[in-house]
Recover the amino acids of this structure.
């Protein structure tokens, strides 16, 4: 079955906030908006607009589905002059924990000063009103948190990983237990999805503000079997730009028939994976890509493997790790670590 694509989903990232939107439709010009949500409160600010306008008439079910995606961004000056770099995307496990891929952070977690420059950005609301041209205009509201905890789901030192379990000679990327939980510096207030506030703004326009998140993502267990229709969210799925500089996420609906047997492609000693036949239209596949069965996360993108001209996308299967994920970066986890280290 042919893969069904939606349009690219654009991001608007300011010096203080980052967020990847996921909405279809023709974009409209950015209108002036100086109010930003900080900790879910509206406050006056002179910062750059943090809402991305979109034609909500053409929006579909992919909009609220992608509201669950958390942007993970390093705010550090880059060689190209950019003040930040997008590291990965993640999903919210509860009010204070985010699940993502470990490999993008393998070197970074060795530097506490660098990790302190990372911020998470969450979707909080959708604000819409009727513009002067009588068109519906929508903005996305966001807020941020910083890091409060960093833990691999199964911690391993680099020297504990066997030589044949690295993807590259520089030992920067390994498929083994490629899952990371990041805790926020303070809990987030979960959104009351669909809760709607109707009002009038400063220009006497009727406005609707709908809470859109944050949304907790349910992840699968060993008893979760993939549905016929799968959902894939990734940075730069069809982009020819380097993933590290890409500022969009893209969404695809994929038939289960694209799944292939990982045992044909990977050594069993590498771990637990879900493998998917690649498609020529997929020009990029990022670590931390999210694979869903219905509303349930079943795997997180790790790497692509090639045999000649044929390749498959390899995802870390989160289902066997369910119990460990539930404990990582929790009080129970801290108690276990404290006991282990005396």
């Amino acid at each position: 079955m042919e893969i069904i694509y939606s349009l690219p989903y654009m991001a608007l990232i300011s010096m203080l906030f980052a967020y990847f939107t996921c909405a279809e439709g023709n974009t409209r010009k950015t209108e002036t908006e100086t109010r930003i949500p900080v900790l879910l409160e509206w406050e006056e600010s002179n910062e750059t607009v943090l809402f991305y306008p979109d034609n909500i008439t053409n929006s579909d079910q992919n909009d609220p589905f992608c509201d669950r995606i958390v942007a993970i961004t390093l705010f550090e000056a880059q060689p190209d002059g950019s003040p930040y770099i997008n590291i990965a995307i993640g999903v919210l496990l509860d009010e204070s924990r985010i699940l993502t891929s470990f490999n993008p952070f393998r070197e970074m977690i060795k530097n506490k000063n660098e990790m302190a420059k990372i911020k998470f950005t969450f979707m909080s609301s959708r604000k819409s009103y009727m513009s002067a041209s009588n068109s519906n205009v929508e903005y996305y509201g966001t807020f941020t948190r910083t890091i409060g905890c960093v833990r691999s789901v199964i911690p391993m030192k680099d020297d504990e990983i066997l030589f044949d379990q690295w993807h590259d000679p520089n030992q920067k990327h390994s498929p083994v237990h490629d899952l990371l939980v990041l805790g926020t510096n303070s809990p987030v207030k979960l959104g009351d999805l669909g809760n709607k506030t109707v009002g009038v703004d400063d220009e006497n326009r009727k406005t609707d503000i709908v809470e859109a998140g944050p949304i907790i993502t349910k992840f699968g267990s060993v008893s979760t079997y993939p549905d016929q229709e799968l959902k894939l969210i990734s940075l730069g799925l069809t982009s020819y730009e380097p993933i590290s500089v890409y500022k969009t996420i893209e969404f695809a609906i994929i038939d289960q028939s694209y799944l292939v047997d990982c045992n044909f492609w990977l050594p069993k000693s590498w771990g637990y994976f879900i493998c998917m036949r690649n498609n020529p239209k997929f020009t990029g596949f990022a670590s931390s890509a999210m694979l869903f069965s219905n509303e349930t996360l079943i795997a997180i993108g790790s790497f692509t493997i090639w045999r000649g001209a044929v390749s498959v996308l390899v995802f870390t299967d989160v289902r066997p790790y369910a119990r460990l994920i539930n404990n990582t970066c929790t009080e129970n986890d801290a108690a276990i670590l404290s006991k282990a280290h005396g």
Residues 1-62, 337-342 have pLDDT under 50 and may be disordered. The chain is about 5% helix and 35% strand. The longest helix spans residues 331-340.
